[in-house]
Each structure stands twice: as C-alpha cells, then as structure tokens.
Design brief:
The strands form 2 sheets. This protein has a 3-stranded antiparallel sheet with strand order 3-4-5. It has 4 helices and 5 strands; from the N terminus they run βββααββαα. By secondary structure, it is an alpha+beta fold. The protein has 2 domains: 74 residues, Calcium-transporting ATPase, cytoplasmic domain N, CATH 3.40.1110; 33 residues, no CATH class. β4 and β5 form a beta hairpin. The chain is elongated.
C-alpha cells in the first residue's frame, strides 16, 4: 500500500512513499545537519528557528522523504538557584563559563535568563 505524504503547507513531495515504516527516510537535526543532507532551509524556516533560539530553545527541523515537514523546539529551564550558585563560585575566585552544545543565540539567551553575568560561553 502506498500513499502520498503532505506537508503542513499542503505540498506533496515528488516521491510516493510506502506505508511500510522501514521505507521512510527521516532526518531530524539542526541547520547544519539539514543543509549537509542537501535540504533547503527557506528564509521563513530560518526565521522560525531563530525565533525559538531567541527564547532559549534548541530548534531542530524534521524531514520525511526529503521534505521538511516540521520543527521541534526543545527547552531547558534555568534553575532558580543558578544565579546564586554562580555568584558564590565567582566569590570564591573561580571563573565560571557556560559550556553548551547549543548555538550561540540560544546560549546567550540562557545566560541572560540566568542573570548570572556570564560573559564567556563555549
């Protein structure tokens, strides 16, 4: 049995996909991963990703069968005591940095939310 996949914009991909789940190619990843897999990120999609990152969320795209079909925003919350703990560590003469695998926009937003005074992020 086969069916055509529709995106959230009503467009159909150029291929017919099987309903057998072993036949689907699903990609989930950030901008770099999606581009590395030769999928185009439109300006509208890029703006949506950036909007989520400015809220401190990690945004990833989802593609099925070579068609971008969605975005997932993942968020961690800054613990209420984070700022206090960081200030204690700084008071002990320690240099405190925010080390993250997130992109720069998300890292800067988290640093600002924590009110920790982080100036160095990696």
């Amino acid at each position: 049995m086969e069916r055509r996949m529709k995106t959230n914009r009503g467009r159909e991909p150029d291929i017919v996909m099987s309903t057998d789940p072993r036949d689907y190619e699903v990609l989930i990843g950030n901008r770099a991963w999606i581009k590395k897999n030769n999928l185009e990120i439109t300006d509208e999609m890029d703006a949506a990703l950036t909007a989520q990152e400015r809220q401190g969320q990690t945004a990833v795209l989802v593609a099925i069968g070579g068609v971008l079909v969605g975005m997932i925003a993942i968020a961690d919350t800054v613990k209420p005591e984070a700022s206090h703990v960081i200030q204690i560590l700084k008071g002990m003469g320690l240099e405190v940095v925010l080390l993250t695998g997130d992109n720069k926009i998300t890292a800067e937003t988290i640093a600002a939310q924590s009110k920790s005074g982080w100036t160095e992020m990696g």
